[in-house]
Specification:
Strand order of the largest sheet: 2-1-5-4-3
Largest sheet: 5 strands, antiparallel
Oligomer: single chain
Low-confidence stretches: 126-140, 400-421
Radius of gyration: 27 Å
CATH architecture of the largest domain: 3-Layer(aba) Sandwich
Number of domains: 4
Structural class: alpha/beta
Strand content: 15-25%
Number of helices: 22
CATH class of the largest domain: Alpha Beta
């Protein structure tokens, strides 16, 4: 009995030493148990998150802190997936609605092969802790960096390499890509790697606002300009010093495109109802979900605006041209929804993967994510997604298909199923092959080939870049 009492006193003393040590070190420590409840929360962690220990200890992490829709708790992720992660930026909100940004090293606690909890070592990241006032008001928090872009295919890696290069300047950028290819992800990544990272990032979908309101939204208004008008800055003023992303630029009217062009060229704006020019320092990133040349031809995009915006043009490949990236994308989405839904799905069976490699993916990466999210809503005790979990319209397509095929290179993927290709895709393939043939006939001379094809040199260069052709 005496020995037990001595051991107990030693244990108490050791715990006091550990507690003192944890509270004195200048890094945050946050530990949760297997139920997701906080069991260690040191003084530095309280300071970083502006919280008191009584508001956090012995409570479920997800009941105390809030995470944005596309953000996961790195602690819960370590607990549910058993994966360690280092140097991960995380943005979330405390119980007062205050935004916190940290850099974390997170580890699962494993005993006898079972996960018993998770611990996070947290470093405060002052430059990112407070989002700019403009960004907070408009809700445009930049959360994506180049590390969030998934894919090892040559098609996507070449675009990433090019995008990283243009972070060094403030030239305008035009991002061309179909719906669901990740245009905003690239735009945010460019902003966050540039010297403008600490300044506002404002994103606006040009197709979402009526034409009558779009001009005042872009350039702002002065009181008295029209009935009910107030002094209000526009997007250019709000984004001063930072980046303005204009999504679906081809949705703007030609008249408004002309005013936008003038603002970009002169680096000044005039509010509606105002008489003074205001200087603005804004990097413009525009996106378009169709071929810019076709948009110009059909008067959906002014040629002079295109030339101004396309100082740098990034072409995002559709998923059907980078099918070797399907597997890593699958793993990423499964990991994401495991965390959100509290599941432990391990993968996808062969029949589903077989379909994924044959499907044409008109909705691209967004379509793939939606299918995985829908499938994981139907998961019960299973740990593998099967055809019974994917939407019925896709399940029918998987019947009587040939055996699974491995990830293929881009040129091989295009040969998978000619009967399923649209007329538009077939025409594009024919155009690509014809351009290759004419270039060969003219020994790679772009000017001569353009003349033969009845195109301008710039038009041909655009198509060469679009099709990934080197001359």
């Amino acid at each position: 009995m005496y020995t037990e009492e001595i051991n107990f006193k030693k244990l108490v003393k050791m715990n006091m030493l550990y507690e003192t040590l944890l509270n004195e070190i200048d890094i945050g420590i946050h530990m949760i148990n297997e139920e997701g409840k906080t069991i260690i929360y040191n003084r530095k962690m309280m300071a970083i998150e502006s919280m008191d220990h009584k508001d956090v200890l012995y409570k479920n992490l997800l009941e105390v802190f809030a995470f944005e829709e596309n953000q996961n708790s790195t602690l819960i992720e370590a607990l549910t997936l058993g994966k360690a992660k280092k140097n991960i930026k995380q943005t979330y909100f405390n119980n007062k609605g205050q935004e916190i940004t940290t850099i974390n090293d997170t580890f699962p606690i494993v005993k006898n092969g079972k996960i018993k909890g998770a611990v996070e070592i947290v470093k405060e990241f002052p430059p990112l802790r407070q989002t700019s006032k403009v960004g907070a008001i408009r809700g445009h928090h930049t959360k994506f960096t180049f590390n969030h872009i998934i894919g090892n295919s040559g098609a996507i890696q070449s675009v990433i390499t090019e995008a990283k290069k243009v972070t060094r300047t403030s030239s305008s950028i035009l991002i061309v890509g179909e719906t669901g290819t990740g245009k905003e992800l690239f735009a945010q990544s460019i902003h966050n790697k540039s010297q403008r990272a600490g300044k506002p990032f404002i994103s606006q979908n040009c197709a979402a606002i009526p034409e009558t309101l779009m001009e005042s939204l872009l350039f702002g208004t002065n009181k008295g300009a029209f009935t009910g008008a107030i002094d209000k800055p526009g997007l250019f003023e709000e984004a001063h010093g930072g980046t303005l992303l204009l999504d679906e630029i081809n949705s703007l009217s030609p008249a408004l495109q002309a005013k936008l062009l003038r603002a970009i060229q002169d680096k000044t704006i005039r509010r509606i109802g105002g008489s003074q020019e205001k200087e603005v320092d804004v990097r413009i990133i525009a996106t378009i979900n169709e071929d810019p040349i076709e948009a110009i031809t059909h008067n959906r995009l002014r040629k002079d605006l295109y030339y101004r915006l396309s100082v740098v043009t990034l072409f995002l490949p559709p998923l059907r041209q980078r099918k070797e990236d399907i597997l890593p994308l699958l793993h990423s989405f499964i990991e994401k929804y495991n965390m959100q839904f509290g599941l432990r799905v391990q993968g996808v069976d062969d029949s589903v993967i077989n379909f994924f490699y044959k499907h044409d993916w008109p909705g691209n990466i967004r379509e793939l994510e939606h299918i995985i999210e829908g499938a994981m809503n139907l998961i019960e005790d299973e740990d593998v997604i099967t055809t019974s979990h994917i939407p019925a319209r896709f399940y029918e397509l998987t019947k009587n298909e040939s055996p699974i095929q491995p990830p293929l290179a881009r040129w091989e993927t295009d040969k998978l199923d000619h009967t399923s290709k649209t007329l538009k895709n077939t025409i594009k393939e024919m155009e690509r092959e014809y351009i290759i043939q004419i270039l060969k006939e003219h020994n790679g001379n772009i000017s001569q080939a353009a003349k033969y094809l009845g195109l301008s040199r710039q038009n041909l260069q655009y198509r060469l870049k679009k099709y990934g052709l080197n001359t």
